[in-house]
Amino acid sequence: MKPVLRLLIILIPVSAFAQEQDSLVLDATPIDFRSRENTILSIMNEGVKQWYEGNPAGYAASFAEEITYFDPGTDGKRIESKDELTKIFSERNTASTYEIIDPDFQHSKEFSVLTYQIIQDFKGITLQWNCTEVYAEVDGQWSVIHGHFSPFSNEVATIPKKFLFIGGGVGLLLFLLLGIFIGRKTKKN
Question: What is the number of domains present in the chain?
Answer without folding.
Answer: 1
